[in-house]
Design a protein that fits this description.
The complex is a heterodimer of chains A (176) and B (657). Chain A is 40% helix and 19% strand. Chain A contains six helices and seven strands. Chain A has a five-stranded mixed β-sheet. Chain A is globular and about 70 Å long. In chain B, helix 2 runs parallel beside helix 6 and helix 13 runs antiparallel to helix 17. With 657 residues, chain B is of the alpha+beta class. In chain B, the strands form two sheets. In chain B, strands 2, 3, 4, 5, 6 and 7 form a six-stranded antiparallel β-sheet that branches. Chain B starts with a helix and ends with a helix. Helix content of chain B is 64%, strand content 12%. The longest helix of chain B is centred in the first third of the chain and has 32 residues. Chain B folds into four domains: 166 residues, no CATH class; 215 residues, no CATH class; 97 residues; 100 residues. The radius of gyration of chain B is 27 Å and the shape is globular. The chains are: A alpha/beta (176), B alpha+beta (657).
Chain lengths: 176, 657
């Protein structure tokens, strides 16, 4: 019986190894959102550049928009940032949701790393994040010309993800 | 030619590692003394050939041989020679070669310094290390060979070393850190050898202790160097970010700290044997896990290496063999007998057990936080960051608790201590701690901050207890107390030194986090900004030219109460190759506070966005780490580890235990 107890560390390790194994084969896959093909939730929030300038979901209308949830406490966002800059340069309209963050730190971040966002709304208490079902940062939503969410991606958007998951939908939307 | 020579040297080293892993191990079971003795020469051989390969790669860097893919990727002909030298470990392949060199180096050191050990033990320890060498060398040769050539299209210029890494700290940080990381393999090997031999006694613990302490000390210094580098080089003003790569080095540190303490109990009192073995296995497993996390791409980090799933599969497989195998041996061989020695609630054993528990719990929370993104990913929730709020919420209270009990534990006695004696001893340090805490809390910040008080009080508590212990021990001896202060054995100085170091680090970490003041402003030439009690006057920028970059350097004069205290010259650099922009922060350090300034964007007309910090006590963090590491080295130097010669002839030690 006492001998059996000594197997506990081994058992824990086997579980951990299985997890790591799964981690290796996993690609940061997009996750179907309950909000897919539904309208972007309503909000009215100030933007980072001017806290008195309130934006709402209606500001998305008319153009395909990539809504990116980010925060300065999110290390992974730093990795994602250069690609967002690239997208913005290519003419993609990128809008930020600064999620549960300190506005000063966020402004400093944008000054330092450059700002890919047309505007970033401040979701300080995470209310909009709650409506969107945000787990953490970064997350990205593709919103069409009518303000309908067409795709949700959890995790870093990079070139591979963009070409594989976003471009087909964008082409389809533009084709209409 | 050089690169090919290096490649061949690696292959030879691999061949020798196979022999090292097999021959002495088999010899130890068959009582073949000759086979066992071969372990020392084989270990030397592995070290010589890995060293040769390393020298070849260094030569390729020095000669800027861009036909070698790795050199072309991480070096540049304009780099100064010392950065060419350190660029060897500036990327995945080379840093792995450095890792293997360290492993071979530790193996060689064990071979040299093991004269007092029974031959069976030496043979098995070196064999286990040889087995580890096989894994790492195979990994390098199969998935990340640093000697691959770019032929026939040899680039005329290299891509350059990442500008972040072009810094003096980078010359020292990785080698010291790897010394620690890899040093834990020696204890791992000792643990496995002990399990195989069934020989888990005080003698075993005494052999293991200096190795554990040495690896721990290197790890301490390596982590401190990394944190200091991040502090002044990254320009974010922070010193610890809970990044997966930092955690990867911190988790083995936590467990090896527990190991160093637990080995002491095993040596002195013969208890906690299984636990000590398990810690030795854990410590090295975590350093392997760190390698896996950093180099496989499962977790995104700001300083992850270029990643490749194939490498991940290999390291995970190796991790499975090493950790799974060793835990299997543990499960089958660890002693199940209860130790006969008993101890009371208020005993040194109990406090050390508490220390171990706290350290392991801290490690587990860090592990959970680090792996959480991965768990979320595996359950289909995507990749996310948990961020510092999670870590701080657990880490800070646990470390404060650890430090508090350290004070009581370090002066308690083996078996049983009287509560009355502890109280007599501790009231003075307690008063000192409370008063110093109040002093700090009232001197800094606008209002009384209880967290500031608590951190300062606990930090000074550790320092005061250690000093009182020293004084008390000196007074208990015959002769003049002052003379006796300098007449203790090395182990005692080591303990006092390391504990005071921890106290200082706690004070530094706590107070600098709570009382830092920061300001982000636009400054035009001639303008000033007030931060805390200091006035920063921006006098404009000038263009400067470095060996491989040009920069704008600001000229800032800092004054306090009208008198000048420092001048700062933060830079914004543009590197020629790749056009990377880098912020070079300027720091004026002193024992009481750091003045820190980093430049942001140029806003036109000579005005710049700048970030200014005044950080009290921040130097204490690294000062404390330095003392901890220094304490570790004092402990290793203690004479009693070398006094012990084998009293029995070697052949007698061969009889099954």
């Amino acid at each position: 019986m006492a001998r059996l107890k000594l197997f506990i560390p081994l058992a824990i390790f086997v579980g951990l190894a299985a997890l790591l194994w799964k981690g290796l084969s996993l690609d940061p896959t997009a996750m179907p959102s309950a909000l897919k093909d539904k309208a972007f939730p309503a909000f009215s929030l100030g933007v980072l550049k001017d806290e008195q300038d309130f934006k709402t979901e209606k500001d998305f209308l008319g153009e395909i928009t990539l809504v990116n949830v980010w925060a300065t406490w999110c290390v992974v966002c730093r990795v994602e940032h250069p690609y967002l800059l690239e997208l913005a340069e290519q003419g993609v309209r990128v809008v930020g949701v600064n999620y549960k963050d300190q506005p000063d730190a966020a402004r400093q971040w944008l000054a330092e790393l450059k700002d890919p966002y047309e505007f970033s709304v401040m979701d300080r208490d995470g209310r909009l994040g709650l409506d969107l079902g945000v787990f953490g940062a970064p997350e990205s939503y593709l919103v069409d010309q009518q303000g309908i969410i067409r795709h949700k991606h959890v995790g870093v958007v990079d070139d591979k993800v963009w070409q594989r998951d976003f471009m087909p939908i964008i082409n389809e939307l533009k084709g209409k | 030619m050089t690169a090919e020579l290096g490649h061949i040297a690696l292959i030879v080293a691999l061949g020798l590692s196979f022999l090292l892993a097999a021959i002495p191990m088999v010899g130890s079971y068959q009582n073949n003394l000759l086979w066992m003795r071969s372990s020392r020469s084989l270990a030397t051989g592995v070290f010589v050939f890995v060293g040769l390969a390393y020298a070849c790669l260094t030569i390729s860097f020095m000669e800027s041989d861009f036909s070698v893919a790795y050199v072309a990727q991480t070096s540049n002909s304009m780099l100064p020679w010392y950065y060419k030298f350190s660029a060897v470990w500036g990327g995945h392949e080379g840093s792995f070669l450095l890792w293997v060199l360290m492993l071979a180096g530790w193996t060689f050191t064990v071979a040299c310094l093991s004269r007092s050990l029974p031959m069976v033990m030496v043979a098995r320890v070196l064999s286990v290390l040889g087995f580890l060498c096989i894994g790492f060398l195979l990994f390098m040769l199969l998935t990340s060979n640093p000697f691959d050539r770019l032929l026939p299209d040899t680039p005329s210029e290299g891509r350059d070393l990442n500008p972040l890494l072009q810094d003096p700290a980078f010359v020292f940080h990785p080698p010291v850190l790897y010394m620690g990381y890899v040093g834990l393999s020696v204890n791992f090997a000792f643990a496995i050898a002990a399990l195989l031999s069934g020989r888990l006694d005080s003698a075993w613990a005494r052999w293991s202790r200096p190795w554990a302490t040495a690896a721990w000390a290197f790890l301490t210094l390596g982590i401190a160097l990394g944190s200091w580098w991040a502090y002044y080089e990254l320009g974010w003003g922070g010193w610890w970010f809970w990044d997966p790569v930092e955690n990867a080095s911190f988790m083995p540190w936590l467990v090896s700290t527990a190991l160093v303490h637990s080995l002491a109990v095993t040596e002195k009192r013969g208890v906690f044997k299984s636990w000590t073995i398990l810690l030795a296995i854990f410590a090295f497993s975590l350093s392997l896990l760190g390698t896996f996390l950093v180099r496989s791409g499962v977790i995104t980090s700001v300083h992850a290496f270029a990643t490749d799933p194939e490498r991940g599969v290999f390291i995970l497989g190796f991790l499975g063999v090493v950790v799974g195998g060793s835990l299997m041996i543990y499960a089958l061989k660890a002693p199940t007998m209860r130790a006969v020695a008993t101890f009371g609630w208020m005993s040194r054993e109990m406090f050390l057990l508490l220390n171990n528990m706290l350290l392991v719990v801290i490690m587990l929370t860090v592990l959970l936080g680090t792996l959480y993104p991965l768990i979320a990913d595996a359950m289909g929730m995507g990749r996310i960051s948990v961020g510092p709020p999670f870590f701080n919420a657990f880490f800070v209270p646990l470390v404060l608790a650890l430090s508090f009990f350290l004070g009581i534990g370090s002066i308690s006695q083996w078996k049983k201590s009287k509560g009355e004696r502890l109280a007599n001893f501790l009231w003075l340090p307690a008063v000192v701690a409370v008063v110093m805490g109040l002093l700090v809390a009232f001197m800094y910040g606008d209002a009384f901050h209880w967290k500031g008080w608590l951190c300062a009080a606990i930090g000074f508590w550790v320092v005061a207890v250690s000093l009182r212990d020293w004084w008390h021990k000196a007074r208990a001896k015959r002769g003049s107390t002052v003379a006796q202060l300098f007449n203790m054995n090395a182990s005692f100085y080591a303990m006092v030194c390391a504990h005071i170091g921890l106290g200082l680090t706690v004070i530094g970490g706590g107070l600098s986090s709570i009382y830092s003041v920061q300001s982000d402003v636009r400054l035009a030439p001639g303008e000033t900004v007030n931060v805390g009690a200091y006035e920063f006057k921006f006098e404009g920028t000038e263009g400067v030219r470095g060996p491989n970059y040009i920069a704008d350097r600001a000229n800032v004069v800092v004054s306090r109460d009208g008198s000048e205290v420092a001048t700062l010259g933060p830079e914004k650099r543009r590197y020629f190759s790749g056009g990377n922009m880098m912020t070079e922060a300027a720091v004026d350090s002193s024992i009481g506070r750091d003045l820190y300034m980093a430049m942001g964007e140029h806003l036109g007309e000579g005005a710049w966005a700048v970030r200014v910090y005044v950080k009290p006590f921040i130097m204490w963090i690294w000062l404390g780490c330095l003392l901890m590491g220094f304490g570790g080295f004092i402990a290793v130097a203690d004479k009693r580890y070398r006094r012990l010669k084998v009293l029995r002839p070697e052949t007698e030690a061969l009889k099954p235990a």
